[in-house]
Structures are given as C-alpha cells and as structure tokens.
Amino acid sequence: MIIEDFDFWLGKAGYFSLTLLIVTFYGLLVGAFIDRTIAKVQGRIGIPYRQPFINILKNFFKRTAISHGVMFYLGPVFRIAGGIGTLAFIPVLYGSEMFSNFSMAGDLFLVIYFMFFGQLGMALGAGESGHPYAAIGIARGLSQMTAYEVPFVLAVISIVIQYDTLSITQIVAAQQGGWQNWTVVTNWVATLAAMLAFLGMMGYSPFDIFLAPQEIPIGPPTEFHSAYLGLMQLNRALFGATKLVLFMNLFFGGATSWPELMIKTLLIYMVAIVVGVAFPRFRVDQGIRFFFKIPTLIGIMSIVYVQMMLVA
User: Fold this and answer.
1) Continuous H helices in the chain
2) Is residue 171 a contact partner of residue 91, using CB atoms and an 8 Å limit?
3) 39: left (phi > 0), else alpha (psi -120 to 50), else beta?
4) What are phi and psi of 230, to 5 degrees?
5) Do residues 197 and 295 touch, judged by C-beta distance below 8 A?
C-alpha cells in the first residue's frame, strides 16, 4: 500500500514537472509575442522570440558580490515559489490525468493563497534593499494588489455559490457541453468583475502603477541581478501563463487539448494588451479608486445575480 502511494505521488510529481516546463515555455513565448505586438503598435520592430530565453540563460550564468541581506534574495525565491504553487493546484487540461496536477477538493482556496504568497514575499525582500524608494514600490504594489483582489474574490465567491464547489476541476466540469454553459454566459456579471480585476493582475497600462517604467528608473529589474533577476523573469512568464489558465478554467470552460488552451489563453491575454496600448497609465490614487468602485460594485452585483438565479 505504501509503495503504491509512493508510486502514485511520484508519478504526479513527474507529470507536474512536465506541465511546469510546458507552461513556462509557453509563457515565455506568449510574452515575446505580446512584446512584439506592442512594438508593432508603437511603430517598432520588437524583440525576437528567442530573446526571453537568452535573457534568462544570461542572468543565470552571472554572479554578484553585492549583498543586501538574506531576505532581499529570498524575495525572488518566494515569488517563483508562489507561481509554482499556484500552478500545482490548477488542472491545466480537463479530463487529462497527466495534466491535472494536484487538483483536489477545495483547491481554489490554495490557488488564491499562493497568488498572494509570491507577491508578499517579494515585498518583504524589497523592504530589505535599503533603497529609499523601496517603500514607495511596496506601498504601490500592495495597494494595487489589495484593490484588484477585492472584485476578483467577489467574482470567485459568486461562481462558488453558482456551482456549489471549491474544486476547480468540478467548476470546469460544470461548464462542459458547449459554450452556452461557460461561466461567461451563465454568470457574465462575475466574469466582467473578474476581467476588470485581471487588468490589474497583469500589470499593463493603465495599471502598471507598481512598475512605473516612465517614472522611476529603478526597482526589481535593476535592484536584482544575476540569477535572482533570472528567477524573476522566469516567474513573470510562469505566473502570467498560470493566471491565464486559471481564468480560462473559471470563466471560459477550460480546455481539453493544448491547441484549445493556447487559443483561449491568448485571447484572454489580448484583453489586457488592447487596454494597455489604448490607455495611458493611471496615477496611484486613480487606479486604486477605480478597482474599489466599478469592479467591486460589479462583483457585489454578481453575488446578488447568482443568488437570484438560484432562487429562480
């Protein structure tokens, strides 16, 4: 019995390692595609598709003699741990034993927890940098995270009530049988609230408050270096692709094959990109007020909507 359990979990770990590799590779390619798309809109050529891979390899082979303290360098480690932990409990392909990962009852709770874990760990790391602007970056990042998580959590509560489960696999199962069963159709109010929160999660304009690339020429991309910067670049691709898979599962019927997954996630990603190239960056107070007003109100309406739908 013990040997069988060991073989089962060993097999699960092996399948998850393969999934992790595929999703990370996909995230890097999608990131390059998005950068090229934005460049074309702005009249530039853009980076080659191999550039994200070159950047990561280059940084991993670099070394540094600078030390800011243990916690500073644990920040990127916590961040990628959050990305890996989030993916670990999300079924990537519905109906596939190989790509179901460690999905189980109540895994939606674990996913939301791990989404917080990486960002909070990164904030602790930045706090030990000793840079006078670190506190500004932390305040901006955590403020925006709190603001967009409110409508997202309200949307999640709405679909949990709708499907009466905290299992992502069961939520996907309830959406099978055609597009008319997808959450975007059956609970469009929750989907709207979540997609508005998604704009903040992806960190593109007008919600790139915590990065502020046109305002502060410092921050994690310059403060971190060598392998630590490589970890952050790797996590940006992994965590971005993982969030796309999560939104696809919760609101757009999941996927039963890799081509279906790629098409759906790319279309979801393009929502943030189109908004990003069309609108200038908000100020800190504007972005936070936006999330606490319109998306939060829509999130509350989604719970009322689903309650009325259940009563009906």
Assistant:
1) 2-41, 51-60, 70-88, 107-127, 134-163, 168-174, 183-186, 188-202, 220-223, 226-251, 258-278, 284-311
2) no
3) alpha
4) -60, -40
5) yes
How long is the chain?
A: 312
Predicted TM-score (pTM) of this structure: 0.89
pLDDT tens figures, 72-112: 778 788 888 888 888 888 999 998 888 888 877 678 888 88
Q: Which contacts qualify for 285-293: CB closer than 8 Å, 24 or more apart?
A: 287/144, 287/147, 287/200, 287/206, 287/207, 287/209, 288/143, 288/144, 288/147, 290/147, 291/144, 291/147, 291/148, 291/150, 291/151, 291/196, 291/197, 291/200, 292/147, 292/150
**Contact (Cβ atoms closer than 8 angstroms) between residue 50 and residue 36:** no
CA distance 244 to 184: 15
| Angle CA 310–311–312, to nearest 5 | 90
Cα distance between residue 226 and residue 229, in whole Å: 6
As a whole number of angstroms, the distance between CA 86 and CA 80 comes to: 10
In terms of Cβ atoms closer than 10 Å to its own Cβ (0-12, 13-18, 19+), residue 126 is buried
Q: What's the longest Cα–Cα distance across the chain? A: 66
DSSP 282: P
What is the per-residue pLDDT across 44-77, written as a single tens digit (0 to 9) for each? 888 899 998 888 888 888 776 666 777 777 878 8
Specify the amino acid at residue 18.
L
